[in-house]
């Protein structure tokens, strides 16, 4: 055990206590941010003449060499240290001697870990955003190809009205676009620097908190020092944004699973993105989509875990807060992994437009359009609804689609029908008449696609 304290202790820590207390096994992930934060701190200390320039340079080169050695595998982060902060400091002292002992001047591990976490989350917010942007790009490509691919739109999982595949996928495009905006929002809110808050009450050294904030590309220093060391709202914010990403991925996965089933056959997953059965040779299973749907549970759990951990903590720092890490690390890994795989799956999926259109017809999704046809010829909507319903019943009895009925059959229900009914209820016509903003009609959809494309091209959400 190598620890940063000991002066007032007369006994060694019990090994089990030490292990229980230690966080190195998971916070070693923060090594880069820990070193980055220390470098800014030390530059500020020298600028304020708390350290000499020589000491600053020794510390900076020591920290740079630790970073390099960790990255190229020469220096292993082992459990002999309590946490990542002790690891870096101990190694620094080993490398540069006396100057290294001055690094922690005017700092506590409380503001240090608060800083490390902010730097880390900030990086991961951006990495997640890039993955979302990549998914959006793949979705947009599908939309561009399928503005004429007709399919049933569902309500209550019952075929309702015809839409296009472009329109259906476009709904997910909106969800993931909002996810990116949410990330940008929380990034803005969290981008303040807690370094200099000390253990809880600031310090007596003349630290320049604005300078460290600037060096680390934060908007400004955080305000109240007690809040600064005990605020984990941004972790909760990020986790809840990740939960929404998972909720969207999970709903999408559910549809992919349905559409891939023998009953729907709307699509076929690429062999590289599906798996077989050990016993049933005919099977091709959508495991990736199922796992994405399944993993949503653990990400929700990570959010609930942290909310519960935080709810009873008095000001300011308490060790409970060390529990902020594993959950969010797990959520980040899970969401990023899911986004990457889901994007690959969508990039390779093959859609079956004929099956989709046939399904829309068999589901009488143009029954509303039959009624609208009559309304346009002066029949009151309520009567038109009844006539269309009776025609659907005929179709069910003879296992046909509305388009398959003869003009005589139409006329038996209402003399108002003419031969233009077929054109009026074709899938193409039913969809293309829907031209209100956001509707599936081809012109409306092309407008949406153009806007989505320019959004993707210029969405500098973090600039
Ligand atoms: N490992 C600790 C954490 O993650 C670092 C801060 C420790 N501070 C302290 N006063 N013991 O929260």
Please, could you describe this protein's structure?
The chain is mainly alpha-helical and 463 residues long. Helices cover 62% and strands 5% of the residues. It has helices at 15-21, 24-27, 31-47, 53-71, 84-96, 109-145, 165-190, 209-215, 225-230, 233-260, 287-310, 324-348, 353-362, 367-376, 381-398, 407-413, 421-424, 427-432, 442-458; strands at residues 150-155, 158-164, 192-193, 220-221, 267-268, 350-351. The strands form three sheets. A two-stranded antiparallel sheet has the order 1-2. The protein has a two-stranded parallel sheet with strand order 3-4. It has a two-stranded antiparallel sheet with strand order 5-6. Strand 3, helix 8 (209-215) and strand 4 form a beta-alpha-beta unit. The chain is elongated. The relative contact order is 0.10. The mean pLDDT is 96. The structure holds arginine.
List keywords for this structure.
binds arginine; two-stranded parallel sheet; two-stranded antiparallel sheet; elongated; mainly alpha; 463 residues
């Amino acid at each position: 055990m190598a620890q940063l304290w000991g002066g007032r202790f007369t006994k060694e820590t019990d090994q089990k206590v030490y292990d229980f207390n230690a966080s190195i096994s998971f916070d070693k992930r923060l090594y880069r941010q820990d070193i980055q934060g220390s470098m800014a701190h030390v530059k500020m200390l020298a600028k304020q003449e708390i350290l000499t320039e020589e000491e600053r340079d020794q510390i900076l080169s020591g920290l740079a060499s630790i970073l390099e050695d960790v990255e190229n595998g020469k220096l292993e982060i082992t459990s002999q240290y309590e946490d990542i902060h002790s690891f870096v400091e101990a190694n620094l002292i080993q490398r540069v001697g006396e100057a290294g002992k001055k690094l922690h001047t005017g700092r506590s591990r409380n503001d240090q870990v608060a800083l490390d976490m902010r730097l880390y989350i900030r990086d991961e917010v951006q990495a997640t955003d890039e993955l979302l942007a990549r998914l959006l790009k793949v979705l947009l490509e599908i939309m561009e190809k399928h503005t004429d691919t007709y399919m049933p739109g569902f309500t209550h999982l019952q075929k309702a009205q015809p839409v296009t595949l472009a329109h259906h996928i476009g709904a997910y495009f909106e969800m993931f676009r909002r996810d990116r905006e949410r990330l940008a929002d929380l990034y803005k809110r969290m981008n303040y620097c807690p370094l200099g808050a000390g253990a809880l009450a600031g310090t007596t050294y003349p630290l320049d908190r604005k300078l460290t904030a600037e060096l680390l590309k934060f908007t400004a220093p955080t305000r109240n020092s007690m809040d600064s060391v005990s605020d984990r709202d941004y972790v909760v914010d990020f986790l809840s944004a990740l939960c929404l990403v998972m909720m969207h991925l999970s709903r999408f996965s559910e549809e992919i699973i349905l559409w891939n089933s023998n009953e729907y056959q709307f699509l076929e997953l690429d062999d590289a993105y599906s798996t077989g059965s050990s016993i049933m040779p005919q099977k091709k299973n959508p495991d990736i989509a199922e796992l994405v749907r399944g993993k949503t549970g653990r990400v929700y759990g990570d959010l609930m875990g942290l909310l519960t951990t935080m709810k009873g903590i008095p000001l300011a720092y308490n060790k409970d807060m060390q529990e902020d890490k594993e959950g969010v690390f797990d959520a980040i890994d899970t969401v990023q992994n899911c986004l990457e795989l889901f994007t690959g799956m969508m990039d390779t999926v093959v859609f079956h437009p004929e099956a989709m259109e046939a399904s829309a017809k068999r589901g009488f999704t143009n029954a509303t359009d039959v009624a609208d046809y009559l309304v346009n010829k002066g029949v009151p909507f309520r009567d038109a609804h009844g006539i269309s319903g009776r025609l659907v019943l005929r179709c069910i009895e003879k296992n046909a689609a509305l388009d398959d009925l003869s003009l005589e059959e139409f006329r038996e229900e209402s003399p108002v029908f003419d031969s233009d009914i077929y054109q009026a209820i074709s899938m193409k016509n039913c969809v293309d008449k829907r031209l209100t903003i956001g509707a599936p009609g081809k012109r409306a959809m092309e407008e949406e696609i153009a806007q989505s494309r320019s959004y993707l091209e210029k969405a500098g959400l973090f600039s």
